Amino acid sequence: MAALDNAETVPRLGASSDTILPVLLFTGLALLPAAIGGETYLIDRFMRIMVFAIAAVGLDLIVGYGALISFGHAAFIGIGAYAAGILAAHGINEAVIALPVALAASTLFALLTGIVSLRTKGVYFIMITLAFGQMAFFTASSLAPYGGDDGLTIHMRDTVFGYPVLENARAFYYVALGCLLASYLLCRTLVASRFGRVFRGARENPARMASIGFDPYRFQLVAYMVSGALGGLAGFLLANATDFVSPAYMSWQRSGDLLIMVIFGGMGRLYGAIIGALVYLVAEDMLAQYTEHWRMLFGPLLVAVAVFAPGGLIGVAERLARSRRRD
Amino acid sequence: MTDPAAEPVLRIEHLRKNFGALIVTDDVTLGVRPGELHAIIGPNGAGKTTLINQISGFLAPESGRILFNGRDITALPVHARAGLGLARSFQITSILPGFTALENVALAVQAHAGSSFRFFGRANAELGLNDPARAALQKVGLGEREGVPAGALSHGEKRALELAIALAMTPKLLLLDEPMAGTGPEETDRLIALLGKLKGRFSMILVEHDMTAVFALADRISVLIYGRILASGAPETVRRDPAVVAAYLGDEMEQPLVPDRDAPRC
Q: Which of A272, A254, A79, A99 is nearest to A184 (CA)?
């Protein structure tokens, strides 16, 4: 976790790279299906990566800007997914209903767990969010009417105003991209707003913020709810992408994966979480082709990033760019 | 300037605080009148910062009351006291190192300029927040440094920034906990001049070790020793109080009140 403490000392190139990189990133993602051509499998794969990126962006909002290290974030994905799955099991297959329900359920879970967990700091916050995540996991496992441990198959994807948009891989890809872009822009706006400035200040010096008249707790709670809602959005999309919902979506390993994406890409820049999700999940696919023990290869890589590159991949890229400019 | 009969801005009644067996605030009663600069002096470990922490809400007293403009604030949290107009500076610099000097002060303005639950619009481009912040920075001589990250300012500049943050809150009472701690002689002189200018416009409690500053600025001085108020009154009275001279001012009085500028300060 040394990477988290060093975030402030990471050298930054300034505003320019924070504009250019996201533009390049989203342009690339928009053009990707054209480049891939007819390989539906790959389009589907990248769509799922973007779905996890949505949750990672939401997680970076609280980790990167608020130093609130949530180790139970997969629970929000699971709750969003179960909202879609349970509604589908009762014959409700309309996104206009299912999506708001998914968002409301995950936001409510964030509110209830945030009220308790945000009263703790540091390691205790990590532990208590992990505990809430596990509670969600075991609750889902015990949902016998909805498959329990085995999960729940969704027989028909959600329609959008009656149109089967999500049945088409390309259309689904662009829906996910649109959601990712919206999530990114929402978080970026929040961070720069009055609200975000207080939230960021509370991470740097809560005593100072209190002594000028702010109660950091309320701001952290709202940010935690936004972050949870984005997890719910990702869960809703994931359930539709896989046609399946299971407690495994909420396992603590999934929460760890999300944290790795955020740290690996570079915390506190939002698009870093997207890059982290891309690199992590593509690397997973590639390494998994060679060995099922791919985590053994990935582990040392992660340690290296934590030790040598506290700014994540973006931090490394910026340092390279800077040293080249100096030459 | 100060009217002895006026209702005090701050009134502390029989305040008591201990850390385990150690009594750090022992039946302290004192008041600050409107516009008054009330200095609190005493040796290291006398409980000055502990007292400031209780007034600003970082510590809860065991017993006793704190009244602010007649209202009992003993149980209020820190941020609520700040909302009522109680501003403090910290002995150990407490700023937002990653924010620019301007944003540090603009946040203090923002805290008192309507709701901060605004999710859209760039806060750092709001003139309504930046203009008063700039004015406060100018007052403390940091006008040229507004774009510098606060963590990169010199020690003296950080001390000045602390003061600018407190001023930007348009406080009713300023609690200054050793604003001159660790500053060089020139900066100390500048801060004394600045506090002199502010005097009368704000009610202030000044905790300070620099006796030149204290005797130049204070309307009233309370001497705190082992958590207890040993003497309280006009500077001349306190200076001559035999108990105070014996317990605290003794050393300083031998080399009259022009301290050696090269001597290390603490």
A: A272
Cβ atoms within 10 Å of A160's Cβ, excluding its own: 15
Residue A230, φ and ψ in degrees, nearest 5: -65, -35
CA nearest A200: which of A3, A8, A6? A8
Say if CB A191 and CB B120 are below 8 A apart: no
Q: In this structure, are B189 and B68 located in the same domain?
A: yes
Express each pLDDT in A3-21 by its tens digit.
Answer: 444 334 334 445 567 888 9
Identify any residues that bridge with B205 across adjacent strands, giving them in sequence order.
Answer: B38, B175
CA–CA gap between residue B58 and residue A320 (Å, rounded): 45
Q: With contacts defined as CB-CB under 8 Å, which chain B residues touch A215?
A: 77, 79-80
The tokens for B4 are 């002895």
CB-CB contact of B159 with B187 (8 Å): yes
**Does one domain contain both B76 and B145?**
no
Residue A314 CA to residue A261 CA, distance in Å, equals: 12
Q: Which of A194, A225, A227 would best serve as a mutation to test chain B binding (most B beta carbons within 10 A)?
A: A194
* Distance to chain A for B251, nearest Cα, Å: 36
| Its pTM surpasses 0.80 | yes
Residue B197 lies in domain:
1-85+172-266
Q: Could you give the CA distance from residue B51 to residue B46 in angstroms, rounded to a whole number?
A: 10
State the Rg of chain B over Cα. Answer: 19
What is residue A284's three-state secondary structure? helix
Rounded CA-CA distance A97/A190 in Å is: 26
Instruction: Indicate the residue type of B197.
Output: K
Tell me the C-alpha distance between A293 and A287, whole Å. Answer: 9
Kindly list the residues from chain A whose CB atom is less than 8 angstroms away from the CB atom of residue B99: 200-201, 204
Instruction: List pLDDT tens digits, range A263-298.
Output: 989 899 999 999 999 999 998 888 888 888 877 877
* Structure confidence by residue, pLDDT tens digits, B44-99: 889 999 999 999 999 999 999 999 999 999 999 999 999 999 999 998 889 999 99
Q: Does B70 share its domain with B191?
A: yes
Q: Is the pLDDT of residue B262 over 80?
A: no
Based on the domain organization, do B116 and B205 belong to the same domain? no
CB contact residues (below 8 A), chain A span 176-195, against chain B: 189-190, 192-195
Lowest average pLDDT, out of A68-72, A255-259, A301-305, B179-183, goes to A301-305
- Per-residue tokens: A166: 């999500």
Asked if residues B63 and B153 have their Cβ atoms less than 8 Å apart, the reply is no
What domain count does chain B have?
Answer: 2
